[in-house]
Amino acid sequence: MAAIGKMWKHSTVRLKIGFFGVVFFLFLGFVVYLVPHDDPTLFDMWNVYAPPSRDHFFGTTALGQDIFWLLINSIRNSIIIGVIVATIGTTVGVLVGLTAGYLGGKTDRVLSAVTDIFLVIPSLPVLILFTSLVQGGPTTLLMALAIAIFAWAAPARQMRSMTLSMREREFVHTARFSGENAFKIITTQILPYSLTWTLSNFMNAVLVAIGMEVTLAILGLSPATLMSLGNMMRVAQSYNAALLGHWFWIGAPVVASVFFFVSLFMFITGYNDYLSVKRGR
Amino acid sequence: MKASRYILIRIVMWVLTIWMGVTLIFIIPRLMPADPIQNMIAMMEHQAGPMPAAEREAMVAQMQRQFGLDESLWNQYTSFLLNGVLRFDFGPSLMNFPTPARDIIFRNLPYTFGLMIVSLIVSWTIGNIIGLLAGFRKDKLSSKIMESIAIFIYPIPIFIIALVFQIVLGFVLGWLPISAVIFGEVWSAQWISTLIRSAALPMLTLVVLGLGWWIISMKALSMSTAQEDFVMFARYRGLSEGEIGRKYVLRNTVLPQVTMLGLSMGGVFGGSVIVENVFNFPGVGRLMLIAVGASDFNMIMGGVTITIIAVTTATLIVDLLIPFIDPRVRRS
Description:
Chain A has 12 helices and no strands. By secondary structure, chain A is mainly alpha-helical. Chain A is elongated, with a radius of gyration of 22 Å. The model of chain A has no long low-confidence stretch (mean pLDDT 83). By secondary structure, chain B is mostly helical. Chain B folds into 2 domains: 100 residues, no CATH class; 190 residues, MetI-like (MetI-like fold, Orthogonal Bundle), CATH 1.10.3720.10. In chain B, helix 5 runs parallel beside helix 8, helix 5 packs parallel to helix 13 and helix 6 packs across helix 8. Chain B is globular. Chains A and B meet through helix 4, helix 5, helix 9, helix 10 and helix 12 of A and helix 1, helix 7, helix 11, helix 12 and helix 13 of B.
């Protein structure tokens, strides 16, 4: 507890705001979600375009679906997709980066080239191709996997440069000269030190993945039955909710994503600042 | 590193990137459980009623032959590389039969690239100037305000920015068309004026999105450069702050930003796909989405392949500018 208190004292305003924002959205998606509610995908044609009331906090859609619970479910699903992609992307990225940075030489050159290539290839056209082929039936997991194809390159690159500088540190030399093998040095000496940066990479991958899901959903390439922030916006947009003045319908996912993305980003940059200050001291 | 060696490495990487990209898009459809031919036949049957089993079989075989799917994987791969990547021949577009997919894509490509290049130049220039000032004079109130705005803009998905502009500038204020309408003979006065009016909102969206990133990255770069010893030394020599900013900080920060410009091409293309679809702008991104809706597989493959080649080539061109900017690469 004392460590957390100390961390709190040294953190910047940005980190604090970001932290509370992220916690708030996690609360919405995983605690508020548990409150018993009707399935928000069900239609209720007697109740279309209902204004906000006690039964429907944010009113209802053109199909009589409850906007508030749609939003809660969407936040939850978007976070889940983000976490799946980030877990795959960060794990692969960290492994590739650690291997390239520690082994060096030919392995490093090949792995770095592949990483650079994946950073340059425009991901959206490839994802459009991928999702168009499974049209009608892309499952959430399949789409997360597709996004993850491009999610590992950025962490890999950062991890490589981290490992390169780490390799020259005293304790790594000591471990090497006392006869530890490469695998053990990487897992017990270098990895623990880079975990803090890995966390920041992970959060960044979550941000990128949720953004990519929103993008694909807007283009109509996300699974149609999936309740996500992007799909909510697309459906509202296809009913011209903004032009007809149904502000809660289009506004709820838009405002929620803006605040979610900004607080996540503030959390990441604030955390990075905190880390570099801590390293400097 | 010698300049010629640098250029050679870049070109090798360019070829490798294209090769890796097109191999990826060759493999993906073949790993999919869904069979595009079965889909197509199902669609035909949906429209024209079911057909007898024997006819169905013959149809499948005929289509497999037509699309070259009865050959071995290796032959399919080499012919894809030869015809698709080298000659841009993807067969006829199925929704505009029999016009080759290539012709339609190349007709749309200039719109996308015009959008990308103009917005990149504008946002890169303005963003770097603001970022440089914000990082170099980081204690000023204006710098802090600018950075806060950038932090607020950067993480927002581009669709939301496009939507806000569409509603506020296009619908509520009615200054600009909410959907692109371009007509008239190409290069006629009418065509140019409708093009500019139609491109204004998509471009503005891309510029605003880019600004956030360039301000944030440039601010971080110039802030760390401003703390270097040589900047300190210049200050002790009595140079004015403006001179230090121009001659020392700017020169050392512009280079990483040019490299970043090359790397950002793919992302800007992704942004362009979104704004084209929001504003109905006639670029490749919108074309590809229409092709997806019409199950025009040749067009999708052609669009994806050509955009990958075009975007990596744009990245290569930016990378090749570096020896002209950086004397270290040029001379040593």
